[in-house]
């Protein structure tokens, strides 16, 4: 199993080079860069520039705020700069942000994302293989590529395309046209992966006349871990503050419903509307937390993750220690996760 780090969205561009080098030195396979406070392309550029073997992806770039042509240009440059270490992670975001924050049009996200990826594939094929650019869809039309604007082929293959997906509809799009699915912390539960994600990926693969093995799953659970039981408990308490807030969003509720906690999901939603953020922890019980969050010290967590995710995920995100003094112990856990999952 490949192990990816994530980076705190509050880190500045100036902090990115040192953090990326640290992640690479710890033995992570890759680094996933979220898009929130910064344009993730800028952060990825710095991370790739200051590493040599680490894979880096946008996790995820807000697709519907950008033209596929501009995204293709950025992806091509990052792949060329890194010698093939860039992965393009895309996400739809939600209507409120696309319309209200980016002032861009909104439409049914799954069909539009399918078209978006196919448009990118057509542009990549033009640049890499010299195919005529001739793509026509409902939302995007690309038919013009003069030699002056064609960057030409890469020495490596074009970047892989990963999609952030929570629900079955977008997951089917992953199976049909993408290279990997990036889950959200709220839908990384093994039962959800097994009972919801896997069937949807398989159905999408059939639609796209592909094999299920053509795409990977990158699970992104919250993980409570650390060098000592006290460290694990500290992280546990921190995560327990975040999860109720996330699950108060209706789009993230399916995991709760799968486990029979629909009423709790509705109560969390109502609390969010009433601004009762500090009371949400009373609804999100210890049973829910222990079911959804893997917990254990660095010595224990590799076995726990293997038992939970074997056969369900080919990649997993793993937290970078807050204290660099624990990097060596975390690195050992990362190595064990990588080796254990391959046995």
Instruction: Tell me the CATH topology of the largest domain.
Output: TIM Barrel
- Note the total helix count: 13
Q: Report the average pLDDT across residues.
A: 95
Number of strands: 11
Give the N-to-C terminal Cα separation: 10 Å
The SSE string, one letter per element, is EHEHEEHEHHEEEHEHEHHHHHEH
Helix content: 40-55%
What value does the Rg take, in angstroms?
20 Å
CATH class bucket of the largest domain? Alpha Beta
What summary fits the major beta sheet? 8 strands, parallel, barrel
CATH homologous superfamily placement of the largest domain: Luciferase-like domain
Strand order of the largest sheet: 1-2-3-5-8-9-10-11
Looking at the structure, what is the overall shape? Answer: globular
Q: Which structural class best describes the helix and strand composition?
A: alpha/beta
- Sheet-strand content, in percent, reads 5-15%
Domains (count): 2
Task: Walk me through this protein's architecture.
By secondary structure, this protein is an alpha/beta fold. It folds into two domains: 2-225 and 294-340, Luciferase-like domain (TIM Barrel); 228-293, no CATH class. Helices cover 46% and strands 12% of the residues. It contains 13 helices and eleven strands. The chain has an eight-stranded parallel barrel with strand order 1-2-3-5-8-9-10-11, surrounded by five helices. Strands 6-7 form a two-stranded antiparallel ribbon. The longest helix has 21 residues, at 109-129. The chain is globular. The model has no long low-confidence stretch (mean pLDDT 95).
